[in-house]
Design a protein that fits this description.
Elements (H helix, E strand, L loop, with lengths): L2 H12 L8 H12 L17 E5 L4 E5 L7 E6 L10 H14 L1 E6 L9 H16 L5 E6 L1 H15 L7 E5 L22 H12 L21 E7 L5 H13 L4 E6 L13 H15 L3
Length: 294
């Protein structure tokens, strides 16, 4: 664990999301978010490596990074935030750097969030976007972090269930694969962003009328037998570490071309933080996986 990683972990501990502590605190947070989550997102003013623009695609505000017609690769990036929080600067920076590095176009749909919305609207939007991008004839990667990683895995299962083609790559960064939080979380050494009861309540809002173990919200319990090449990142200092490892093992048991990258003593979604040495290594590996030919 690098010195910078320790600093990040200390910072995360000081900024622990209180809304994850209990179901009540999660409901209070969702109420606050419900008053503002449908507002238009304003792209932060900063220096970007690629051209960044906002466009309404299929009734969803979408950030597009390096929207060049001659791009070599396409990425659909689904941001994390426990299905209730909007995209953040680290996500934007990550997508921006990725688009430049792979000579690709990254589409980051700002999908509808709980509690005002459930998974259903988002699936409809992403399906339309995915079908539209398939027509471009370029290799497509679907990827995301945390809840966005769980959504990426679940959507890939949804594609398989509906006889739609799989993406070239599925890349999952600390994916939240079980919103029911039914696993064993007591033996994880430490996680500065932990909170079982709060997360379960947020997952319940996202699931709407679905069972919390339905694959569309908890891909850990779905059929993974038709997934494409999958790359997973997780840190040992993550509450969901064992859930992610179990998901990896399930893919492996189904003979999926899957790779698990474990960040020793690393925190949740560590590849997204640009100043961490381990993050740079993970980022470079993600670029390699996208550029590799299957």
């Amino acid at each position: 664990m690098s010195k910078m990683s320790k600093i990040v972990e200390y910072t995360l501990e000081k900024r622990h999301p209180e809304y994850l502590v209990s179901a009540e605190s999660a409901r209070e947070h969702m109420h606050k978010r419900s008053l503002e989550e449908d507002n238009e997102f304003k792209i932060p003013k900063r220096i970007y490596h690629s051209k960044v623009k906002s466009k309404n695609l299929f009734n969803c505000q979408t950030l597009i990074f390096n929207g060049a017609e001659d791009c070599s690769h396409i990425v659909i990036y689904l941001h994390g935030g426990a299905y209730v929080n909007e995209i953040m600067i680290p996500h934007i920076s990550f997508c921006d750097r990725l688009a430049k590095k792979i000579n690709g176009t990254v589409f980051a749909p700002l999908y509808p969030l709980a509690p005002n919305h459930t998974y259903e609207e988002t699936y409809e939007i992403i399906e339309k976007l995915y079908k539209h991008l398939l027509d471009m004839g370029k290799p497509i990667t679907i990827m995301g972090d945390s809840s966005g990683g769980g959504l990426s895995a679940a959507f890939a299962q949804y594609l398989a269930a509906n006889d739609l083609p799989q993406p070239e790559n599925l890349i999952l960064i600390s994916p939240w694969v079980d919103v029911s939080m039914s696993g064993n979380y007591d033996d994880v050494e430490k996680d500065p962003m932990s909170g079982v009861d709060g997360l379960r309540e947020l997952g319940r809002a996202w699931a709407g009328d679905l069972d919390l173990k339905d694959y569309k919200v908890s891909p850990l319990f779905g059929d993974v037998s038709k997934l494409s090449r999958t790359t997973i990142f997780v840190g040992t200092h993550e509450q969901i570490y064992h859930d992610v490892v179990n998901f990896y093992n399930k893919l492996k048991d189904n003979n999926i071309d899957v790779e698990l990258n474990v960040g020793e003593e690393m925190n949740h979604v560590y590849p997204v933080y640009p100043l961490v040495p381990e993050s740079k290594e993970a980022f470079n590996h993600i670029v390699e996986r996208i550029l590799e030919k299957n």
